[in-house]
Design a protein that fits this description.
It is found in: Cell membrane. GO terms for molecular function: ATP binding; phosphorelay sensor kinase activity. This is histidine kinase. Keywords: ATP-binding, Cell membrane, Kinase, Membrane, Nucleotide-binding, Phosphoprotein, Transferase, Two-component regulatory system. By secondary structure, this protein is an alpha+beta fold. It has five helices and seven strands; from the N terminus they run αββαββααββαβ. The strands form two sheets. A five-stranded mixed β-sheet has the order 1-3-4-6-5, covered by helices on one side. A hairpin with a 5-residue loop joins strand 5 and strand 6. The protein starts with a helix and ends with a strand. It binds adenosine-5'-triphosphate (ATP) and magnesium ion.
Length: 168
């Protein structure tokens, strides 16, 4: 699942000549009960923004780890940044900063992302300064797998929905 997403993102980053690094941490449990469609959409929106709003030759770093029963995604870019007053409006539908208007977009990605994060009872935060990059952090509560979850995941006819394998 991650490998697929990151391949997609690598291609996009290469197109834009942005250096894209990702770190999937060993702390991830072997299986997680997680809505992978929702989580995939969240990752896609945040990463595509980071790549879009970062100039060529700069870096985007994406980190995924598991801590305090939360799946955490941190995406750090060296892009155009977002001023403090704009940060509060980012998640409203159709809101786009003036700096962003020379890039294509509808202003819906983050509103949708926030909606999905809320549905998954998670949190999304942003740290940024105008002109000096942004860091988005998303935390989603995910219970640690039980022995039964792991056994179910290995059973071929399991109807348990499996989202992520840490080391595919
Ligand atoms: P789309 O609907 O295609 O995603 P969009 O990227 O403009 O369009 P959002 O993803 O909702 O819309 O982001 C809203 C606004 O937040 C952007 O227009 C931009 O002003 C700002 N923004 C989001 N991510 C970043 C980022 N990584 N760096 C700088 N500005 C950002
Ligand atoms: Mg977007």
């Amino acid at each position: 699942f991650f490998v697929h997403l990151f391949t997609l993102m690598n291609v996009r980053a290469e197109d834009e000549n942005v250096t894209f690094q990702w770190h999937i941490d060993d702390s991830l449990p072997p299986v997680m009960k997680l809505d992978d469609t929702k989580f995939g959409q969240i990752v896609l929106n945040i990463l595509s923004n980071a790549i879009k709003y970062t100039p060529a030759t700069k870096n985007v770093i994406c980190q995924i780890f598991y801590a305090q029963e939360q799946l955490v995604l941190v995406v750090k870019d060296e892009g155009i940044g977002i001023s403090e007053e704009e940060q509060q409006r980012l998640f409203s539908p159709y809101h786009r900063t003036d700096d962003a208007k020379k890039f294509e977009g509808t202003g819906l990605g983050l509103a949708i992302t926030k909606g999905l994060v809320d549905l998954m009872e998670g949190q999304i935060t942003v740290k940024s300064h105008a002109g000096s990059g942004s860091t988005f952090k998303i935390s989603i509560p995910v219970a640690p797998p039980t022995a039964q979850d792991i056994a179910d995941a290995q059973a071929p006819a399991s109807d348990v929905k499996l989202a992520i394998k840490a080391n595919p």
